[in-house]
């Protein structure tokens, strides 16, 4: 039974590796050659980051045949384990160390996410085509100069030091045997792959800086990001009836956001904001942010607000909308105050009526006394005459 079980495991492993290899090549023949060791289908780029008071690693798995990123891991934080990791170390050992850091919570998911997204934007297909011939010669020299500015912009950092190495590798074996599996998720490719954002954030030797509205929008956005160490992508809560229009929003006004939990980034943000309970359920209540301002051009409206713990909330709308705000504290309390006021008015009215009745009774008594005195005077006068 043990032999049969062992053979079954081997067959399953080979089938899994074949399936993973097919994602990095164009043909089944290429996949077989990769598994036989005749050709290598990928590179693993290992980048060590020293950023202000933070340290970290970025691992970028690249298909050398399809010329695109297969998986990208960014793990940045304050764990002392980062200091002993070296870029020239074996990738299995590096991945094991990063997995241990993930288990102990020694990294910052939000900053790691921002760094991963910046690296995705920097390593475009065109850029990879320039770099792959260099990596074939084991030359990683251009990696640091390509990543330095995008990472500073993504993290609002001041001082950064990068070290990079490149290893030839089987992409399938890396993915199949990855010690980080189930502990640290790969950073997904950003959905907002607009060329304007890419050109504004990624320096290139062969292209000119972006001109016109795109760079103006980027400058507006950077002004909001300056004062905040972390940025979370959110969705604006829209209220067509009771919401506040863009023109009527004032700085400091509380507005509502939701976390887009359908993406790995959103789930990470929900965890950061404490929206996931012990059972793994996500709270549905919106999150309150204090409105800071809007950066816009003709097609995009970037809404910024200050969230809890100095997180910068950032949502994007394609056109002006009415933004939802928190409901007033208590309508019932207002009703009670109104009822009390009405009761007070009734009491005041009754008092006025009572005062009026009292004044009338006093006047009637005075008139009676006056008539009585007159009658007594007349009787005395008549008796004297008689």
Label this structure with key terms:
386 residues, alpha+beta, six-stranded mixed beta sheet, four-stranded antiparallel beta sheet, 46% helix, elongated
Layout of SSEs?
Blueprint: H1 2-22, H2 28-35, E1 42-51, E2 54-63, E3 68-77, H3 81-84, H4 91-104, H5 109-122, H6 125-136, H7 141-155, E4 160-169, H8 171-176, H9 195-201, H10 213-225, E5 230-233, E6 235-236, E7 244-245, E8 254-258, H11 264-272, E9 287-296, E10 301-306, E11 311-317, E12 322-323, H12 331-385
Parallel strand pairs: 5-11
Antiparallel strand pairs: 1-2, 1-4, 2-3, 6-8, 7-12, 8-9, 9-10, 10-11
Describe this structure in words.
- The protein has 386 residues and is of the alpha+beta class.
- 46% of the residues lie in helices and 20% in strands.
- The protein is built from twelve helices and twelve strands.
- It has helices at residues 2-22, 28-35, 81-84, 91-104, 109-122, 125-136, 141-155, 171-176, 195-201, 213-225, 264-272, 331-385, and strands spanning 42-51, 54-63, 68-77, 160-169, 230-233, 235-236, 244-245, 254-258, 287-296, 301-306, 311-317, 322-323.
- The strands form three sheets. The chain has a six-stranded mixed β-sheet with strand order 5-11-10-9-8-6. Strands 3-2-1-4 form a four-stranded antiparallel β-sheet, sandwiched between helices. The chain has a two-stranded antiparallel sheet with strand order 7-12.
- The radius of gyration is 37 Å and the shape is elongated.
- Mean pLDDT is 81; it is low at 193-214 and 331-335.
């Amino acid at each position: 039974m043990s032999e049969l079980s062992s053979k079954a495991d081997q067959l399953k492993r080979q089938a899994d590796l074949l399936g993973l290899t097919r994602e990095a090549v164009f043909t089944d023949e290429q996949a077989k050659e990769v598994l036989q060791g005749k050709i290598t289908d990928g590179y693993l780029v290992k980048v060590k980051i020293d950023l202000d008071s933070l340290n970290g690693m970025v691992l970028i798995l690249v298909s050398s045949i399809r010329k695109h990123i297969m998986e990208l891991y960014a793990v940045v934080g304050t764990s002392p384990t980062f200091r002993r990791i070296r870029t020239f170390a074996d990738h299995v050992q590096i991945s094991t160390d990063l997995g241990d850091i993930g288990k102990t919570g020694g990294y910052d998911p939000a900053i790691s996410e921002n760094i991963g997204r910046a690296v995705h934007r920097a390593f475009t297909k065109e850029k990879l085509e320039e770099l792959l011939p260099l990596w074939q010669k084991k030359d990683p020299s251009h990696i640091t100069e390509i990543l330095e500015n995008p990472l500073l912009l993504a993290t609002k950092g001041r001082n950064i030091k990068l070290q990079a190495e490149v290893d030839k590798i089987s992409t399938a074996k890396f993915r199949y045997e990855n010690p980080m599996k189930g502990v640290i998720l790969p950073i997904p490719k950003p959905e907002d792959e607009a060329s304007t954002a890419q050109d504004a954030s990624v320096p290139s030797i062969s292209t000119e800086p972006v001109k016109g509205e795109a760079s103006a929008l980027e400058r507006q956005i950077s002004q909001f990001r300056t004062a905040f160490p972390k940025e979370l992508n959110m969705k604006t809560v829209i209220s067509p009836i009771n919401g506040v229009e863009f023109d009527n929003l004032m700085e400091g006004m509380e507005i509502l956001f939701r976390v887009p939990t359908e993406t790995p980034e959103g789930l990470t943000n929900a965890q950061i904001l404490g929206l996931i309970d012990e059972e793994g359920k996500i709270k549905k209540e919106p999150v309150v942010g204090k409105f800071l301002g809007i950066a816009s051009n003709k097609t995009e409206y970037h809404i910024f607000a200050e969230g809890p713990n100095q997180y910068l909330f950032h949502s994007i709308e394609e056109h002006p909308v009415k933004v939802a705000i928190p409901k007033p504290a208590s309508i019932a309390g207002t009703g009670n105050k109104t009822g009390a006021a009405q009761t007070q008015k009734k009491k005041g009215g009754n008092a006025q009526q009572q005062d009026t009745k009292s004044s009338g009774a006093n006047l009637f008594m005075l008139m009676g006394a006056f008539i009585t005195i007159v009658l007594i005077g007349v009787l005395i006068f008549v008796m004297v005459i008689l």
